[in-house]
DNA sequence: ACATTAACGGAGA
DNA sequence: TCTCCGTTAATGT
């Protein structure tokens, strides 16, 4: 019974997002009273481009992909979401709509926090507000460098970036099972899946990585970083 | 330097 | 069986 209470009280979960540390107990309680959980299977849409930004989302468990729905049904994956990250769009303080779609890559438990409450906290707590701006700014910066990478790097550089991103930011390990398939890896690096396959093989031939199906292991990280930097 | 297309085999529903 | 995925090679831009 004790355990059940702990699981339902989101104060136990609050440490997951850095910025929740700025909240008072009372403010945390406010969030506790305005949050809702839902479970998703791989491939299921958590929210869709165009839908209202009525909640901020945190993954309790699992991973999801954040992607833009471009022209001709072509997607651009902009990031992978995992627990501890705030997932909300720039539409939050704009047209109140999502501009990207979020779908589950694994089994996902997601926590939906009422957007009105999140906005209320901005008024109540200036440290929280600053942390929120900081979070949004970091994401904005990432997009700048992603834009440079996608437009000015060649394919090996882009794929090296993707592998380093997954290793450093997502899995925090140099060996991992990618939850992205080849198609999605292409959507993340703006290349055809056939090119992804060919360049993965090139990397393998050059001793940078080993890859069989979903398992990827980085063998020579400095060299991979050089490929990333040299485009 | 890349995308596209076609074709094939394997895995899984 | 049918569909999805990974892979390869040939061809197109």
Radius of gyration: 19 Å
Strand content: 15-25%
**Percent helix range:** 40-55%
Tally of structural domains: 2
Q: What's the mean pLDDT score? A: 91
Reported by name, the CATH topology of the largest domain is: Jelly Rolls
Q: State the helix count.
A: 8
CATH-wise, what's the superfamily of the largest domain? Jelly Rolls
Computed structural class? alpha+beta
Task: Describe what you observe in this structure.
It is a single chain. The chain is an alpha+beta fold and 231 residues long. It has 2 domains: 10-134, Jelly Rolls, CATH 2.60.120; 153-230, Arc Repressor Mutant, subunit A (Orthogonal Bundle), CATH 1.10.10. The chain is built from 8 helices and 10 strands. The protein has helices spanning 2-8, 25-32, 115-124, 126-152, 155-171, 182-189, 193-205, 221-229; strands at residues 35-40, 45-47, 55-61, 64-69, 75-81, 101-104, 108-114, 175-177, 209-212, 215-218. The strands form 3 sheets. A 4-stranded antiparallel sheet has the order 2-6-4-5. A 3-stranded antiparallel sheet has the order 1-7-3. Strand 9 and strand 10 form a beta hairpin. Helix 3 (115-124) packs across helix 4 (126-152), helix 5 (155-171) packs across helix 8 (221-229) and helix 6 packs across helix 7. The chain is elongated. The model is unreliable at 1-5 (pLDDT under 50). It binds a DNA duplex (13 and 13 nucleotides) through residues 154-155, 181-183, 191-195, 197-198, 201, 213.
């Amino acid at each position: 019974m004790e355990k059940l209470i702990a699981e339902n009280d989101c104060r136990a979960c609050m440490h997951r997002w850095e910025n929740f540390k700025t909240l008072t107990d009372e403010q945390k309680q406010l969030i506790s009273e305005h949050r809702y959980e839902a479970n998703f299977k791989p491939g299921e849409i958590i929210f869709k481009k165009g839908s209202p930004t009525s909640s901020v989302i945190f993954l309790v468990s699992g991973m999801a992909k954040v992607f833009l729905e471009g022209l001709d049904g072509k997607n651009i994956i902009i990031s992978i979401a995992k627990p501890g990250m705030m997932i909300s769009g720039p539409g939050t303080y704009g047209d109140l709509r999502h501009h990207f779609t979020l779908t589950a890559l694994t089994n996902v438990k997601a926590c939906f926090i009422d957007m009105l409450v999140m906005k209320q906290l901005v008024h109540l707590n200036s440290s929280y507000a600053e942390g929120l701006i900081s979070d949004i700014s970091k994401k904005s910066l990432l997009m700048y460098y992603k834009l440079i990478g996608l437009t000015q790097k060649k394919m090996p550089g882009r794929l090296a970036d993707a592998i380093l991103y997954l290793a450093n930011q997502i899995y925090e390990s140099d060996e991992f099972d990618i939850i992205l398939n080849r198609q999605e890896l292409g959507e993340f690096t703006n290349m055809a899946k056939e090119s992804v396959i060919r360049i993965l093989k090139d990397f393998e031939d050059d001793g940078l990585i080993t890859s069989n199906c979903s398992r990827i292991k980085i063998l020579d990280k400095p060299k991979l970083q050089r490929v990333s930097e040299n485009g």
